[in-house]
Specification:
A four-stranded parallel beta sheet has the order 2-1-3-4, with helices on both faces. The chain has about 300 residues and is of the alpha/beta class. The protein has a single domain, classed as Rossmann fold (3-Layer(aba) Sandwich), CATH 3.40.50.300. Helix content is about 55%, strand content about 5%.
Length: about 300
Amino acid sequence: MPDAPILYCLGATKAGTTWLYRYLHDHPDCAMPAVKEAHYWDTFEAERRDKQLTAFRVRLREMRDDKTQAAKAGRGWQVDNMDRRINEMKALVAVLEGPRGDDAAYLGWLRQGRADARLVADITPNYATLDDATLERMRDAAPEAKFILLIRDPLDRLWSHIRMQARRQRQEHEKYEKKANNILYRILNRGQETHILERGDYPKIIRKLRRVIPQGRLLIAFFEDLLTDAGLAKVCAFLGIAPRQAQVETPVHAGPEVVMLDKLRPRALGLLNEHYEWVARNVGPLPQRWQDNLGRV
């Protein structure tokens, strides 16, 4: 029996990758791993690998605690689900810890128990930051694999990423809204937190992907279009799966609503203006949300 085809979703960060994972997870043609972000291709360097392994081990402890609580409450279905997730995470940890001379162990983990599926996927936004050589290895390891880059309105993506950063960094005495706007201020005035901008640098990321990934294996998709029947059908056709109505609520993992300061918004749009115009010229017609924000520049 042939191996299940692979999808790599490369991001961008805060551009709907979790939404896509949930959609594919519920799709009868797909068999998704319990771990959404495998972080295989971005952990060849020892320090990055060790940091990711630490995060996975923390998550394993949390899952074991959840399993214990579910068992005490008599929720057998949840215990079974946690067992599956724990076992998949343990197997992934073993892959990351193991030799990386080839990628057979990783591909085996990704496809294990999913031979009948029409699609499996590794949806790790950080893969958008990979260098050419790693992308080439990723491309060649599974010649049938397809690649999707989801892109979201640049201002919406930036602000969502900033809010996520603020939630993670906020100390007990700090106000969330002020923290988020302070991060944006530092980006605009001090050139700090550059990784937030890099995760949404569509011109740089798309040029790199088009340089490495063959045209028929790469799709650049607007997240805003993915929420429409036509946009979703286009993605499903690219993946070779039947389109079906999305059951996933929108948005996924949205943080608490926080207002961007009026004095910062025009400068943020000015900073991102090149991204709007480049995508319009090189990807395709902009969704309405993009056009609305571009009109405010």
